[in-house]
Each structure stands twice: as C-alpha cells, then as structure tokens.
Amino acid sequence: MDCQKCARKPATVFMTTVVGGDLKKVDLCEDCARSSGAIHPAGFVAADLIIQEALQVVVPSERTCPACGYSLETLQKTGRLGCGVCYEKFSGPLQAALVESQTDVVHRGKRPVRKNATREELEAELRHHVARENYEEAARLRDRIAMMEISAAKKPESA
Fold this sequence. Notes:
This protein is mainly alpha-helical. Helices cover 47% and strands 9% of the residues. It is built from seven helices and two strands; from the N terminus they run ββααααααα. A hairpin with a 2-residue loop joins strand 1 and strand 2.
C-alpha cells in the first residue's frame, strides 16, 4: 500500500481515528508521517495532526449521495435521507447509528396489545405462531385463551 500523501513510498504508518462519528484511515510513509508532525520526535503519535490530515484526505464525493447530492452531514443533522440510493451510500453510518440506538439492526415491528380480541382471532393467531414455530408466543396466546374461558365461565348470564 502506498503513502496517501506522496504516493511514492510504501506506507508504514497506519492511523485510524474517529472524527465526528466517521472512521478516518490515513496511511503514510515514515518520512511523510515525520514531516507532517504525525510522529513525535520521541516516537509518540500527535493525534491532532493526524485528525487534520485525515480530514483533508476525505474526498467530498464520498460524503454525498451520487443520485441526489444529499450529504452525510445533512443526514446526521436531520436524521432523514434524500432518496433510495442514500440507503446504500450511507449504509455504514446508518448501521452504526442503529446499533447504538436499538437492540438490533433488523426492524421486526411491534404490534400493540389487543385487549378486545375475540377468541376466534386469538385462535387464528395461535395457529399462525405454531405454524411458524414461534412456540413462546403461541404459549402466551394459549394461556390468554384459557384465561378468557375461565373469566367467561365465572360471569353470570345477564337476564
């Protein structure tokens, strides 16, 4: 891999930093790393200088959608995408944001609890869950149907 600054020598200094939630990678040869101040004379890395270099290395087209021109910064500010291509273009940052904010990156949906469902509706849902081998949900529905029968048996008939 060649140095990203001079493109003449092989890169021997590989820096990875996180800048504003974005992962920045900079590959430099030892001479360019020393001349830019990325390597301290004592051998330590000057992180601030690396971050500045990483910001200059980023190509603006990598931060915008090729179809609509929507930028990653706008996505981060608004939380909205410009078009369908944005989903593919910004899939990395979107995945990272989903992992941080949710327990899973796959949307499974959430159904509100139906308190007034009829027995027939619950039995149909029970059959559906058994067919899909979702036995925990099927057992919950079975118990709910049994409770429904018990409460119906306890109610006196209205005259």
